[in-house]
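Researcher: I'd like a candidate sequence for this fold, 271 residues long. If you have to choose between options at a position, lean toward the conservative one.
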């Protein structure tokens, strides 16, 4: 007679279920910002240092000295930042609520025509848009803001719609099942999950604003574009390069600030 010995399965370790989530939480907590996040400011700092060394050692003629004196450069830089920040704030105030509205059931059918209109605004030549706005409203800062806003509204609007449409509807329905109102589910579930996509659109709009704000000088709205036009019209390569370095450095730094903000507001589990 053969006796078969049955081995009893080992009882699960009491520590296994508790250590895994702890390890996962520790991993999330230990995860620091990616090193690539610091590459842009380092690169921009190096470019500015190289430009400063050239500016302080170059022999400039009277025209270049007047154009590139520190006071004029600071004024033009501040005007350019104001054009970019105010224009982007105006775009966000209009595009984000409009994008939220166009994802609601009663207004979703209007999203196609609104996106087509916004796409038309971006497809229009930026200099033509500025000149048309100036002919209609006159020259100055706010006319440039309006034209730049029309030009840059599409990325924020489109990303707001795409981000909200990409939220898992099961999560929203689960929230509604727990007693949340539609507004609460929007504020506590949909928008937080869509924030990374929305901020990607804001970063695109910021970079567009920095570039197109260079054209604001044509309607007397100031900005660093004066260095581009002066360098071309008077054939001063140093002035032209100065404008290019300042505008591109500003665009990279603003994009980096947007990327940093996107990283900070993104839920830790999605980083």
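Model: Candidate sequence:
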């Amino acid at each position: 007679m053969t006796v078969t010995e049955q081995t009893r399965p080992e009882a699960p370790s009491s520590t296994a279920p508790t250590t895994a989530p702890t390890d996962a939480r520790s991993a999330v907590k230990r995860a620091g910002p990616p090193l690539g996040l610091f590459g842009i400011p380092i690169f921009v700092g190096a470019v500015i240092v190289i430009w400063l060394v050239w500016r302080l050692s170059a022999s400039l003629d009277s025209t270049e000295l007047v154009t590139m004196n520190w006071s004029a450069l600071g004024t033009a830089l501040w005007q350019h930042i104001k054009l970019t920040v105010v224009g982007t704030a105006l775009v966000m105030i209009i595009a984000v609520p409009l994008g939220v509205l166009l994802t609601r059931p009663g207004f979703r059918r209007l999203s196609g025509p609104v996106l087509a209109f916004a796409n038309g605004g971006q497809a229009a030549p930026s200099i033509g848009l500025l000149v048309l706005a100036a002919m209609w409203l006159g020259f100055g800062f706010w006319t440039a803001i309006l034209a730049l806003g029309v030009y840059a509204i599409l990325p924020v609007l489109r990303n707001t719609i795409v981000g909200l449409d990409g939220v898992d509807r099961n999560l929203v329905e689960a929230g509604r099942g727990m007693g949340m109102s539609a507004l609460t589910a929007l504020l506590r579930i949909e928008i937080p999950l869509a924030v990374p996509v929305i901020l990607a659109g804001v970063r695109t709009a910021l970079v567009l604003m920095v570039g197109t704000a260079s054209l604001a000088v044509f309607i007397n709205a100031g900005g660093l574009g004066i260095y581009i036009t002066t360098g071309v019209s008077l054939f001063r390569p140093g002035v032209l390069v100065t404008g290019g370095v300042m505008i591109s450095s500003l665009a990279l730094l603003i994009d980096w600030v947007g990327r940093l903000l996107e990283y900070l507001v993104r839920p830790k589990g999605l980083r």
